[in-house]
Structure formats: C-alpha cells, structure tokens
Write a structure and sequence with these properties.
CATH architecture: Sandwich
Helix content: 10-25%
Shape: elongated
CATH superfamily: SoxY domain
CATH class: Mainly Beta
Number of strands: 9
Radius of gyration: 18 Å
Structural class: alpha+beta
Strand content: 35-45%
Largest sheet: 6 strands, mixed
C-alpha cells in the first residue's frame, strides 16, 4: 500500500512540474497576444506601486491615450505577469462606446516581478508599458 501512495505522489509531482514547464514565458505570452504585431512603447500608462507590501490585493490602473472614436479606438487591453503561476492576468474588450480607454483592477502577485500592460488599437497597432514591481509579502504561492 505504501508503494502505491509513493508512486501516486511521485506521479502528481511529475504532472505539476510538467504543467509549470509548459506555462509560456512572459515574452511568449505577449507575442501570442500581439498576434504578429510588434508592441511599441508609449500610449499605455500602467499605474501600479513599484513597492508592494502585500501581494494579495494590488491595485492597478491602465490608461491608453486614445480618442475612442469609431475611427480610432482601443479594441483590447491585456495584462500579463512574469512570475505568477499563470501569465495572463486579465483581458478587457473595449470599443468607441466605452468613452475612455481606462480599466482598474486588483491583482495578486506571487513575488517581485515585471507586469506588462498592452493595448490593441483599431488600426491593428499594439502599444505597451512594462513596470518592475518589488513585492515584500508574496501571494499566489503554491505549497
């Protein structure tokens, strides 16, 4: 009976390890979301504290410089992280009726890492801002 439990525990560790290895890197997640477009710096402003005491509820706001008209507007805003168990934090669909290209959320951060905010505009261009965050009390840690 003990051998069966040890074998099952070993199998579980192998599956979890393989799943973590299969998780894309931050750069791969950004490339996949950008769908062939090269993200450019500018137009996106990611407002988040660079020093976070508690990673359990970190407020952030993303603003994109856009007139939000039918001819020129933000289509989607995406947030990605470097070291949480999943790279994809959130995605927001917008349109001219949104009025402003701005979203605010609270996120969890496993540890100190880089956060990337991206915006896809109606002309197909992709814009970004990257911020390095120092977290003193981690969240999202799997034990």
């Amino acid at each position: 009976m003990m051998h069966r439990r040890a074998a099952l525990a070993g199998l579980l560790v192998a599956v979890v390890t393989a799943a973590r290895a299969a998780e894309p890197t931050l750069e791969a997640a950004v490339r996949a979301w950008a769908a062939g477009a090269t993200p450019r710096d500018g137009r996106v402003r990611l407002e988040i504290a660079e020093l976070v005491e508690n990673g359990n509820a970190v407020p952030l706001t993303v603003r994109v410089d856009s007139p939000m008209t039918a001819a020129d507007h933000v289509v989607e805003i995406a947030l990605f992280n470097q070291r949480n168990p999943q790279r994809d934090i959130a995605r927001f669909t917008l349109g001219p009726a949104s009025g402003r290209a701005e979203v605010s959320v609270r996120i969890r951060l496993a540890t100190s890492q880089q956060i990337v905010a991206l915006a896809r505009l109606s002309d197909g261009s992709v814009w970004q801002q990257r911020v390095d965050i120092l977290v003193t009390l981690a969240a999202c840690v799997e034990g």
